[in-house]
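Posting for a labmate who doesn't have an account.
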Amino acid sequence: MHTRLLAAAIAVALPLAPVPAAAAPIAASLTAPLVAPLSLLADAGTVTPAQASGARKPVQDRAQGLLKAGNPDSAAELLAEEASKRSDPVLHLDAADAYKTAGVKNKSKADLTSGIEEAKIGLDILYFLQDPRCDPDWQLVDSSEVSAEIRRGEKLVEDSEKAITDLDTKVEAPPPVEEDKGRKKAPRDGRGYIAVGSLLTLVGVGGLGIMGAGLATGASAQKDIDTLADSLKNGTIMQAQFDAEKTAIDDKGKRGNVLTYAGIGVGAVGLAAGIALLVVGIKKRKQYRAEHGGASDSPSAMLLPALGRDSAGLVLSGRF
Protein backbone atom coordinates (compact mmCIF):
# COMPACT_ATOMS: atom_id res chain seq x y z
CA MET A 1 0.00 0.00 0.00
CA HIS A 2 2.81 2.37 0.91
CA THR A 3 4.55 1.78 -2.40
CA ARG A 4 1.36 2.57 -4.34
CA LEU A 5 0.91 5.88 -2.48
CA LEU A 6 4.52 6.90 -3.18
CA ALA A 7 4.16 6.11 -6.87
CA ALA A 8 0.95 8.14 -7.00
CA ALA A 9 2.67 11.13 -5.42
CA ILE A 10 5.50 11.09 -7.94
CA ALA A 11 3.03 10.78 -10.77
CA VAL A 12 1.28 13.99 -9.63
CA ALA A 13 4.54 15.94 -9.51
CA LEU A 14 5.83 14.83 -12.93
CA PRO A 15 4.48 16.10 -16.27
CA LEU A 16 1.52 14.24 -17.69
CA ALA A 17 3.56 12.04 -20.04
CA PRO A 18 4.71 8.45 -19.99
CA VAL A 19 7.51 8.01 -17.44
CA PRO A 20 10.51 6.07 -18.71
CA ALA A 21 11.91 3.18 -16.73
CA ALA A 22 14.94 5.33 -15.81
CA ALA A 23 12.76 7.38 -13.42
CA ALA A 24 12.30 4.40 -11.12
CA PRO A 25 15.53 4.99 -9.08
CA ILE A 26 14.44 8.57 -8.36
CA ALA A 27 11.08 7.44 -7.03
CA ALA A 28 12.68 4.71 -4.95
CA SER A 29 15.03 7.19 -3.24
CA LEU A 30 12.25 9.43 -1.93
CA THR A 31 10.87 8.82 1.54
CA ALA A 32 7.34 8.66 2.94
CA PRO A 33 7.04 12.29 4.22
CA LEU A 34 6.96 13.43 0.58
CA VAL A 35 3.63 11.69 -0.21
CA ALA A 36 0.72 13.70 1.16
CA PRO A 37 2.19 17.20 0.59
CA LEU A 38 2.77 16.46 -3.10
CA SER A 39 -0.89 15.57 -3.50
CA LEU A 40 -1.88 18.81 -1.83
CA LEU A 41 0.47 20.78 -4.07
CA ALA A 42 -1.12 19.20 -7.08
CA ASP A 43 -4.48 20.55 -5.96
CA ALA A 44 -3.00 23.97 -5.18
CA GLY A 45 -1.49 24.41 -8.64
CA THR A 46 1.74 26.25 -9.33
CA VAL A 47 4.32 26.54 -6.55
CA THR A 48 7.16 28.99 -7.19
CA PRO A 49 10.44 29.35 -5.25
CA ALA A 50 9.26 32.75 -4.00
CA GLN A 51 6.02 31.26 -2.62
CA ALA A 52 7.92 28.42 -0.92
CA SER A 53 10.43 30.85 0.57
CA GLY A 54 7.65 33.07 1.94
CA ALA A 55 5.92 30.07 3.48
CA ARG A 56 9.05 28.77 5.22
CA LYS A 57 10.24 32.17 6.51
CA PRO A 58 7.95 32.30 9.62
CA VAL A 59 9.01 28.75 10.55
CA GLN A 60 12.69 29.63 10.22
CA ASP A 61 12.18 32.77 12.34
CA ARG A 62 10.51 30.77 15.13
CA ALA A 63 13.29 28.18 15.01
CA GLN A 64 15.96 30.88 15.11
CA GLY A 65 14.40 32.29 18.27
CA LEU A 66 14.56 28.88 19.92
CA LEU A 67 18.19 28.46 18.90
CA LYS A 68 19.13 31.84 20.34
CA ALA A 69 17.34 30.87 23.56
CA GLY A 70 19.56 27.78 23.81
CA ASN A 71 16.89 25.23 22.83
CA PRO A 72 18.23 23.48 19.72
CA ASP A 73 16.14 20.37 20.50
CA SER A 74 12.88 22.31 20.27
CA ALA A 75 14.06 24.12 17.15
CA ALA A 76 14.96 20.83 15.48
CA GLU A 77 11.55 19.25 16.27
CA LEU A 78 9.70 22.32 14.95
CA LEU A 79 11.69 22.41 11.71
CA ALA A 80 11.39 18.64 11.16
CA GLU A 81 7.60 18.72 11.69
CA GLU A 82 7.06 21.65 9.33
CA ALA A 83 9.47 20.21 6.76
CA SER A 84 7.47 16.97 6.73
CA LYS A 85 4.18 18.84 6.28
CA ARG A 86 5.47 20.96 3.40
CA SER A 87 7.98 18.52 1.82
CA ASP A 88 10.37 21.47 1.91
CA PRO A 89 14.01 20.37 1.41
CA VAL A 90 15.37 23.61 2.87
CA LEU A 91 13.46 23.07 6.12
CA HIS A 92 14.69 19.47 6.22
CA LEU A 93 18.27 20.74 6.03
CA ASP A 94 17.54 23.40 8.65
CA ALA A 95 16.20 20.65 10.91
CA ALA A 96 19.36 18.59 10.28
CA ASP A 97 21.50 21.57 11.29
CA ALA A 98 19.50 22.11 14.50
CA TYR A 99 19.71 18.38 15.35
CA LYS A 100 23.49 18.51 14.84
CA THR A 101 23.74 21.50 17.19
CA ALA A 102 21.65 19.67 19.80
CA GLY A 103 23.68 16.47 19.38
CA VAL A 104 26.99 18.23 19.89
CA LYS A 105 25.66 20.20 22.85
CA ASN A 106 24.03 17.20 24.57
CA LYS A 107 26.57 14.63 23.30
CA SER A 108 23.58 12.72 21.93
CA LYS A 109 23.99 10.16 19.15
CA ALA A 110 20.18 10.04 18.78
CA ASP A 111 20.03 13.74 17.88
CA LEU A 112 22.95 13.41 15.47
CA THR A 113 21.33 10.38 13.81
CA SER A 114 18.03 12.26 13.45
CA GLY A 115 19.94 15.10 11.83
CA ILE A 116 21.49 12.74 9.31
CA GLU A 117 18.05 11.35 8.43
CA GLU A 118 16.61 14.84 7.96
CA ALA A 119 19.54 15.86 5.77
CA LYS A 120 19.12 12.77 3.57
CA ILE A 121 15.40 13.46 3.10
CA GLY A 122 16.21 17.00 2.04
CA LEU A 123 18.89 15.75 -0.34
CA ASP A 124 16.46 13.27 -1.94
CA ILE A 125 14.01 16.08 -2.68
CA LEU A 126 16.77 18.33 -4.03
CA TYR A 127 18.03 15.57 -6.33
CA PHE A 128 14.44 15.10 -7.52
CA LEU A 129 14.13 18.84 -8.26
CA GLN A 130 17.24 18.64 -10.43
CA ASP A 131 15.68 15.99 -12.67
CA PRO A 132 14.55 17.50 -15.99
CA ARG A 133 11.31 15.50 -15.79
CA CYS A 134 10.26 17.32 -12.61
CA ASP A 135 7.12 19.44 -13.10
CA PRO A 136 8.29 23.04 -13.79
CA ASP A 137 5.18 24.33 -11.99
CA TRP A 138 6.34 22.66 -8.74
CA GLN A 139 9.61 24.33 -7.75
CA LEU A 140 10.29 24.76 -4.03
CA VAL A 141 13.87 26.01 -4.55
CA ASP A 142 15.23 28.25 -7.27
CA SER A 143 17.26 26.24 -9.78
CA SER A 144 20.31 28.45 -9.16
CA GLU A 145 20.27 27.56 -5.45
CA VAL A 146 19.71 23.81 -5.67
CA SER A 147 23.42 22.92 -6.03
CA ALA A 148 24.38 25.08 -3.04
CA GLU A 149 21.68 23.45 -0.90
CA ILE A 150 22.89 20.00 -1.96
CA ARG A 151 26.41 20.88 -0.85
CA ARG A 152 25.03 22.12 2.47
CA GLY A 153 23.14 18.88 2.99
CA GLU A 154 26.16 16.72 2.19
CA LYS A 155 28.29 18.79 4.59
CA LEU A 156 25.68 18.34 7.35
CA VAL A 157 25.74 14.56 6.87
CA GLU A 158 29.55 14.53 6.92
CA ASP A 159 29.80 16.72 10.04
CA SER A 160 27.14 14.74 11.93
CA GLU A 161 28.82 11.42 11.13
CA LYS A 162 32.15 12.83 12.31
CA ALA A 163 30.52 14.04 15.54
CA ILE A 164 29.20 10.51 16.17
CA THR A 165 32.68 9.10 15.56
CA ASP A 166 34.15 11.62 18.00
CA LEU A 167 31.64 10.55 20.67
CA ASP A 168 32.65 6.91 20.16
CA THR A 169 36.34 7.75 20.48
CA LYS A 170 37.52 7.62 24.07
CA VAL A 171 39.79 10.45 25.04
CA GLU A 172 42.92 8.95 26.53
CA ALA A 173 44.33 10.72 29.55
CA PRO A 174 47.83 12.11 29.03
CA PRO A 175 50.54 10.00 30.64
CA PRO A 176 51.65 11.23 34.06
CA VAL A 177 54.67 13.44 34.03
CA GLU A 178 57.56 11.64 35.63
CA GLU A 179 59.68 13.62 38.02
CA ASP A 180 63.31 14.04 37.12
CA LYS A 181 64.95 11.73 39.63
CA GLY A 182 68.44 12.50 38.39
CA ARG A 183 68.43 16.03 39.71
CA LYS A 184 67.76 16.69 43.37
CA LYS A 185 66.89 20.07 44.70
CA ALA A 186 69.42 21.57 47.04
CA PRO A 187 68.19 21.77 50.62
CA ARG A 188 67.17 25.21 51.78
CA ASP A 189 69.60 25.24 54.66
CA GLY A 190 71.12 28.66 54.06
CA ARG A 191 74.24 27.40 52.29
CA GLY A 192 73.60 29.73 49.36
CA TYR A 193 73.44 32.78 51.62
CA ILE A 194 76.56 31.65 53.44
CA ALA A 195 78.48 31.08 50.21
CA VAL A 196 77.56 34.45 48.71
CA GLY A 197 78.02 36.21 52.02
CA SER A 198 81.49 34.71 52.42
CA LEU A 199 82.47 35.81 48.93
CA LEU A 200 81.26 39.37 49.47
CA THR A 201 82.98 39.50 52.84
CA LEU A 202 86.25 38.45 51.22
CA VAL A 203 85.71 41.19 48.63
CA GLY A 204 85.19 43.62 51.47
CA VAL A 205 88.38 42.41 53.16
CA GLY A 206 90.14 42.84 49.86
CA GLY A 207 88.86 46.41 49.76
CA LEU A 208 90.30 47.01 53.19
CA GLY A 209 93.59 45.62 51.89
CA ILE A 210 93.50 48.12 49.03
CA MET A 211 92.76 50.86 51.54
CA GLY A 212 95.71 49.71 53.64
CA ALA A 213 97.97 49.75 50.59
CA GLY A 214 96.81 53.26 49.79
CA LEU A 215 97.47 54.43 53.31
CA ALA A 216 100.91 52.84 53.25
CA THR A 217 101.70 54.47 49.89
CA GLY A 218 100.56 57.86 51.20
CA ALA A 219 102.62 57.47 54.37
CA SER A 220 105.66 56.49 52.33
CA ALA A 221 105.20 59.51 50.10
CA GLN A 222 104.94 61.78 53.10
CA LYS A 223 108.13 60.29 54.56
CA ASP A 224 109.95 60.81 51.28
CA ILE A 225 108.88 64.43 51.03
CA ASP A 226 109.99 65.08 54.62
CA THR A 227 113.40 63.55 53.90
CA LEU A 228 113.71 65.58 50.71
CA ALA A 229 112.85 68.77 52.57
CA ASP A 230 115.54 68.08 55.21
CA SER A 231 118.11 67.52 52.47
CA LEU A 232 117.21 70.88 50.91
CA LYS A 233 117.43 72.59 54.29
CA ASN A 234 120.86 71.06 55.00
CA GLY A 235 122.12 72.05 51.58
CA THR A 236 122.63 68.49 50.53
CA ILE A 237 120.58 69.05 47.38
CA MET A 238 119.79 72.10 45.29
CA GLN A 239 116.33 73.60 44.73
CA ALA A 240 116.17 72.28 41.18
CA GLN A 241 116.71 68.69 42.36
CA PHE A 242 114.16 69.21 45.13
CA ASP A 243 111.54 70.40 42.65
CA ALA A 244 112.16 67.49 40.29
CA GLU A 245 111.96 64.81 42.99
CA LYS A 246 109.01 66.51 44.72
CA THR A 247 106.87 66.08 41.60
CA ALA A 248 107.45 62.32 41.56
CA ILE A 249 106.73 62.06 45.29
CA ASP A 250 103.49 64.04 44.84
CA ASP A 251 102.32 61.61 42.14
CA LYS A 252 103.07 58.72 44.49
CA GLY A 253 100.99 60.36 47.22
CA LYS A 254 98.07 60.91 44.85
CA ARG A 255 98.12 57.22 43.89
CA GLY A 256 98.03 56.35 47.56
CA ASN A 257 94.97 58.57 48.08
CA VAL A 258 93.14 56.95 45.14
CA LEU A 259 93.83 53.48 46.49
CA THR A 260 92.69 54.52 49.94
CA TYR A 261 89.34 55.93 48.77
CA ALA A 262 88.68 52.96 46.45
CA GLY A 263 89.49 50.50 49.20
CA ILE A 264 87.13 52.26 51.61
CA GLY A 265 84.24 52.01 49.09
CA VAL A 266 84.82 48.39 48.16
CA GLY A 267 85.46 47.35 51.74
CA ALA A 268 82.40 49.08 53.16
CA VAL A 269 79.97 47.66 50.55
CA GLY A 270 81.46 44.18 50.55
CA LEU A 271 81.57 43.84 54.33
CA ALA A 272 78.08 45.28 54.84
CA ALA A 273 76.41 43.00 52.28
CA GLY A 274 78.56 39.97 53.07
CA ILE A 275 78.05 40.06 56.82
CA ALA A 276 74.27 40.57 56.38
CA LEU A 277 74.02 37.50 54.11
CA LEU A 278 76.16 35.47 56.50
CA VAL A 279 73.82 36.28 59.36
CA VAL A 280 70.76 35.25 57.32
CA GLY A 281 72.48 32.08 56.11
CA ILE A 282 73.56 31.06 59.60
CA LYS A 283 70.02 31.53 60.91
CA LYS A 284 68.59 29.42 58.08
CA ARG A 285 71.19 26.72 58.66
CA LYS A 286 70.31 26.61 62.35
CA GLN A 287 66.57 26.42 61.59
CA TYR A 288 67.09 23.69 58.96
CA ARG A 289 69.12 21.53 61.32
CA ALA A 290 66.54 21.96 64.04
CA GLU A 291 63.70 20.88 61.71
CA HIS A 292 65.59 17.96 60.14
CA GLY A 293 67.38 16.60 63.18
CA GLY A 294 70.82 17.93 62.35
CA ALA A 295 73.72 18.60 64.64
CA SER A 296 72.90 20.42 67.83
CA ASP A 297 75.88 22.75 67.77
CA SER A 298 75.03 26.25 66.63
CA PRO A 299 76.81 27.74 63.64
CA SER A 300 78.87 30.81 64.31
CA ALA A 301 81.09 33.27 62.51
CA MET A 302 83.67 35.82 63.66
CA LEU A 303 85.27 38.72 61.86
CA LEU A 304 88.53 39.86 63.51
CA PRO A 305 90.94 42.63 62.58
CA ALA A 306 94.40 41.64 61.36
CA LEU A 307 97.09 44.28 61.65
CA GLY A 308 100.73 43.99 60.62
CA ARG A 309 103.72 46.24 60.42
CA ASP A 310 103.04 47.12 56.81
CA SER A 311 99.47 45.81 56.37
CA ALA A 312 95.97 45.91 57.81
CA GLY A 313 92.88 43.75 57.21
CA LEU A 314 90.23 41.44 58.64
CA VAL A 315 90.13 37.70 59.23
CA LEU A 316 86.83 35.77 58.77
CA SER A 317 86.48 32.57 60.76
CA GLY A 318 83.42 30.49 61.51
CA ARG A 319 81.73 27.10 61.92
CA PHE A 320 78.81 26.29 59.60
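Reply:
Got it, the C-alpha coordinates are right above this. The two ends are 102 Å apart (CA to CA).
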